[in-house]
Specification:
Strand order of the largest sheet: 1-2
Number of helices: 4
Number of strands: 4
Distance between the termini: 38 Å
Order of helices and strands: HEEHHEEH
Mean pLDDT: 83
């Protein structure tokens, strides 16, 4: 329990210390999304970390569908990106709003990625994270 509280304190301290650098970036990305495509700046999904259901926020990278049709999983057949969407996804900038999930206590900075509730097959032994082993492996494989 003490280790959990220390990790949570560390996560919050890191996010709060970086906020002066992150806030201008968040505002610039929000402005870019707003100016390059109609619709909301943020998109939300229901996520499951093994113990709780919560809302995960991201910058919108896909074209907004006003008819309400939404596909929660992106496939090669439904990739209708906004102008800035591919850039945001490549550099993982679309996930910056999840830092607020860290402050709220739904997520951690490092941990297994949360799943959509319908894709969760087991409970995670720890809090879901913004980044984990799969993300790091992907970054190393694709960029270096």
């Amino acid at each position: 329990m003490v280790a959990f509280q220390c990790k949570r304190a560390f996560d919050c301290a890191c996010v709060l210390l970086m906020m002066p650098l992150i806030l201008p970036m968040l505002l610039a990305i929000a402005l870019a999304v707003r100016l390059t495509s109609p619709g909301p700046v943020l998109s939300s999904n229901s996520a499951w970390d093994g113990t709780q259901d919560f809302t995960i926020m991201k910058f919108r990278t896909m074209i907004h569908r006003s008819d309400g049709a939404h596909q929660p999983v992106t496939t090669s057949g439904n990739q209708r990106f906004t102008l800035v969407g591919p850039f945001l996804r490549r550099w993982k900038l679309d996930e910056l709003p999840q830092l607020f999930n860290v402050l709220i206590g739904n997520m951690s900075l490092v941990g297994p990625r949360p799943k959509l509730p319908e894709h969760a097959i087991s409970n995670l032994p720890c809090r879901a994270g913004i980044t984990g082993a799969a993300t790091i492996a992907s970054l190393v494989r694709n960029r270096f």
